[in-house]
């Protein structure tokens, strides 16, 4: 392990430890420590991590895509297999997606469906496999991982809608732009969108990317992983694709403002060229980070995604989404007010009738 440490010291070690890939092993550790309900302390007073089962997916995929109460919905050509979920098979013109939601909750008098993720700091670990018959650039198009306002919206961006609102991380396996000699594919890139930008497929999303790196991920005989971490508005993307059980840096962007209450999903598309795009697991960890009072002020909730020092075309901020309680209170007080108004109306009407009767006699 010591040999794997880079000169930047404990920070790297902390980051790797933070990315404990095996959630079940972590839970076992918690149970052994006699604190099955509690989090694991990663570093004194700093960061805790919890596996959030409601936003995670792993084998066996019971009920996925079939049960109405499933946490995960399938779309398009996506299929549940015993060992993986296949977003697309190695066939032309297919697209598939997998989207998370939390099961519906009854809060009288309304049913609240499709509850999204409200975590502030999180880490998503993606275990995936891309493989197929295609040789030397004759395969495509790759897969995307999403944290977005909308879910289940098919479209041209790796099988998802264009002009999305949120974060997209792309594992692009086919170089569409001929001139990109200096860029070796497959290539991982990230994009934050407030709904105003189009993903330029012909240029592999280059005009709007936050950063990226080469990731040789096709037809490997060992497991491949990607981790997206969002802590204190800092977006970090790392990968473990060399079979060494080590995270390698790919993208690091500070000042990324993502609203809470978005959905996690993954999608893929094939065109003239194809590949099998498989997802084996998605594990979401809640990271609990201490903030100074200044940071608390700085990290207030936002309602539209943005990146500091990067100008996105203006969009009008939508009204903040209503929480379940707010919705319930609005409905409840509207009902009370309506009943009250009817009663007052009836009283006034009776009085008016009495008066007109008196006048008449
Ligand atoms: Ca491409």
TrEMBL record:
One of its GO terms (molecular function) is D-mannose binding. It is found in: Endomembrane system; Golgi apparatus membrane. Residues 49-287 form the L-type lectin-like domain. The keyword Transmembrane helix applies. Its main location: membrane. One of its GO terms (cellular component) is COPII-coated ER to Golgi transport vesicle. Keywords: Disulfide bond, Glycoprotein, Golgi apparatus, Lectin, Membrane, Metal-binding, Signal, Transmembrane, Transmembrane helix. It is a single-pass type I membrane protein; Single-pass membrane protein. One of its GO terms (biological process) is endoplasmic reticulum to Golgi vesicle-mediated transport. The chain crosses the membrane at residues 325-349. Residues 1-44 form the signal peptide. This is VIP36-like protein isoform X1. The gene is LMAN2L.
